[in-house]
From TrEMBL:
Highest taxon, organism lineage: Bacteria
Annotated CDD domains: BKR_like_SDR_like
Species this chain originates from: Hypericibacter adhaerens
One Pfam short name: adh_short_C2
Annotated InterPro entries: NAD(P)-bd_dom_sf (IPR036291), SDR (IPR050259), SDR_fam (IPR002347)
Protein name: Dehydrogenase
Family stated for the protein in its record: Belongs to the short-chain dehydrogenases/reductases (SDR) family.
């Protein structure tokens, strides 16, 4: 299916690895011009080169921390009027909330709630004026199924989710959609940390820990950044123009509820 995205400009945040990269590559394959951001220039440039080679798309790397005003300004200076904005940043640390400081909470809110809100604020009015816009926020299954040890993620991402629910309805009539993609277990560097900590807690090998975790997922495996990226590209498509304000799980069926 042609997703109708040829020539669209896509700004994909935190995209040198993992799901951000998956989204950038899928959008590039659909003919978008893509800007990718991350904090480390060398890894980011290598990713940009690899996406260019795989897709033939124009890909620009913008180095910076998206959780800071300076990082966001750099991204917006390079791509001031994206048609597509994919918000993403690294996840906060896990732990007992009793041990988290004010600084920990501020960092989680900056990265996983305020960074997307400020990037949306800077770009959405131009999208409504042009009559096309697609915003996808990478959040987490923790929005629907919170875990106590992911207190920072539960809190910060739920704040973003509430904000998006109101915003999506305000801009829908201008063909601007705003949706959240909720990863369950996707095979990335981040999920490797969880596999390692499960292995340590159970006193078993990494492979045995992974097998235990996979057994809990109805699909019987972790998802891939590539299939996550394809879902993101579909949400950005012309065909998905009537899907907005949604929280869509990509979790291989792991979330057990009906709604
Ligand atoms: P990852 O570690 O594989 O990749 C993260 C990417 O973001 C890297 O390119 C990194 O350089 C970049 N990055 C991190 N912080 C940044 C910042 N402040 N500014 C700019 N770039 C930054 O991670 P992932 O697994 O793709 O996770 C993406 C998001 O999804 C995270 O917030 C994570 O917590 C969340 N999540 C992941 C899973 C999973 O199973 N992988 C599940 C639920 C939620």
């Amino acid at each position: 299916m042609d997703l109708g995205l040829k020539g669209r400009k896509a700004l994909v945040c935190a995209a040198s690895k993992g799901m951000g990269r998956g989204c950038a590559e899928a959008l590039a394959r659909e003919g978008c011009e893509v800007w990718i951001t991350a904090r480390h220039a060398d890894v980011l440039e290598a990713t940009a080169a690899s996406i260019r080679k795989a897709t033939g798309a124009r890909v620009t790397a913008v180095t910076g921390d998206i959780a800071t005003e300076a990082g966001r300004q750099a991204a917006l200076a390079a791509c001031p009027e994206p048609d597509i904005l994919v918000n993403n940043a690294g996840g906060p640390p896990t732990g007992d909330f009793r041990n988290f400081t004010r600084q920990d909470w501020d960092a989680a809110l900056e990265a996983n709630m305020l960074a997307p809100i400020f990037l949306i604020k800077a770009t959405i009015d131009a999208m409504t004026r042009r009559g096309f816009g697609r915003i996808v926020n990478i959040t987490s299954v923790t929005v629907k199924q919170p875990f106590a040890s992911l207190a920072l993620s539960n809190g910060a991402r739920s704040g973003l989710t509430g904000f998006i629910a109101g915003l999506a309805r305000e801009v829908a009539r201008h063909n601007v959609t705003v949706n959240n993609l909720l990863p369950g277990s996707i095979a990335t560097d981040r999920s490797e940390v969880f596999v390692a900590s499960h292995a340590k807690a159970r006193g078993i090998s990494r492979e045995a820990a992974l097998a235990e975790l996979e057994k809990e997922i109805p699909a019987g495996r972790f998802g891939t950044p590539e299939e996550f990226g394809e879902a993101c590209a579909f949400l950005c498509s012309v065909q998905a123009g009537y899907i907005t304000g949604q929280n869509i799980l990509i979790d291989g069926g792991a979330y057990p509820g009906t709604f």
